[in-house]
Every structure is written in C-alpha cells, then in structure tokens.
Amino acid sequence: MANTVKDTIKTRKIAILAADGVDEAAVSAMTKAWQAAGAQVKLVAPRLGALTGAKGNELQIDFSLLTTSSVLFDAVYVPGGAASVETLLKEPDAVHFVNEAYKHCKAIAASGEGAALLHASYVGAELSKEPETQSLASSTDPGLVVSSNPNARKVADAFIAAIAQHRHWEREQKDQVPA
C-alpha cells in the first residue's frame, strides 16, 4: 500500500453512516462533492429500504449494518441529524463500524451532531472532549475530519484530502482499538 496513489479519491468507496432523521442536505452536498472527485458513495443504515431525512426527503439505503462491514469501504462519514445520531448511538454495530474503520487506519469524518457518534467510539479518545471546539482537522490525527459546523464544502474538501492519503498508518502505533 506504500505505492497507492495519494493525490486522488477516484474509485474509493465512502460509507455514509446514517439513520432516519439524517441531515439530507449534508448527505447530498457531500455525495455530490465526492462523486465529482470520482469516489463511490454508499449509504449504510441500521436497516434496508429508505431513510426519511430530517426534512422529510427519502434517501435510498445501499447496505444495512447487519450485512456489511467497514472493511469494504475506504472511508466513513457520519452526517448530522439529531434523530439519526441518536439511533446510531443505540446501535452497537454502528459504533463497531467506526471503531473498525479507525483500527484499519481509514479516513473518518463527521459533521454537526455526527461528532457524537465518534465521541461514543474509541475515536472519541482522539478528539477534544467538547465537539463544538473541534476543528476541521483533528490536531491528534490527520485522518479525522470533525466539524460542529455542517459547512459541507469545507468538510468535503478536508475529507477528500484525508481519503487521498488512503490510510493513516500512524494509528498503528496507538493502543489496541477494540474492533
């Protein structure tokens, strides 16, 4: 993997981890930005079918947490939406999905309330204790992009840069991640 191209996200698979009540505007903006850069974007949820966003729009689910794993993706994004994040916090498989992606040195991003899921996982140990003070690029881990501000363009650009590195190998030196 040392020879992996690190200036593009073309063909990389990004999982959007969400549930009913997700911020569909953030999902739409991120999806457009990543697809324009050549990535494949898939919606992963606690069940199959369609999600109802916070504003009532439907989003088609590609995979359920029961039938997929983070090892099938190159990166993970957790969008905001209070109801979505509340549901994900009650799903052990959602927390495991994030822990496993972190353990495998993958890029992880969260915006708005989505940061709460990261704080509930092992990743939370790498973040400041106050999500609202977290910047776009974590000072302790360049593979984490967390923002309490759902400004999609800034988050998308920072996440594209993190995904382009493919893996963040400095994590291998950290304590064992429970995944």
Explain briefly what this protein structure is.
With 179 residues, this protein is α/β, with parallel strands linked by helices.
Question: What does it look like?
Answer:
By secondary structure, the protein is an alpha/beta fold. It has one domain: Class I glutamine amidotransferase (GATase) domain (Rossmann fold), CATH 3.40.50.880. Helix content is 29%, strand content 18%. The protein is built from five helices and eight strands. The protein has helices spanning 24-36, 82-89, 92-103, 115-120, 152-164; strands spanning 13-17, 40-45, 50-52, 58-60, 63-64, 75-78, 107-111, 144-147. A six-stranded parallel sheet has the order 5-2-1-6-7-8, sandwiched between helices. It has a two-stranded antiparallel ribbon with strand order 3-4. Strand 7 (107-111), helix 4 (115-120) and strand 8 form a beta-alpha-beta unit. The longest helix has 13 residues, at 24-36. Residues 129-139 have low confidence and may be disordered.
